[in-house]
Amino acid sequence: MNKQVVVVDDEQDILDMLRRAFTLEDIDCICFNDSVEALEFIKKNNNMIAVIDIKMPKMSGIQLLNEIKKYNPLCNIIIITGFSSMARVVECLGGGAIDYFVKPFKTTDDIIVALKQCMERLNRWEEAISK
Fold it and tell me: Does the predicted TM-score (pTM) go above 0.85?
């Protein structure tokens, strides 16, 4: 299973901040500012973890979430957004996202904890499959 984290956000500052934070934690990531390109990459590389912004041009994060889940229902998807509402949270979590974080972030610590939990889950799946 590909444990490289795909990060998708149309804001370059957010991508740079997350890349730096993840790299400091030895989390391998690749960043995209285009949701369509990110989807193609995920399909080709069978990525199992993605961090996705909701509001993006071309394809929204909700649409990207739905497309990824059609292709790979086991993909661990974390949503990030600056536009939060209870309806949006319910839509994302109901659509298969495993967590939801609101920008601006005070720290990236909670996102890193969520990513590490995803990686632990994937490790358990690999162990179960290999038995």
Answer: yes
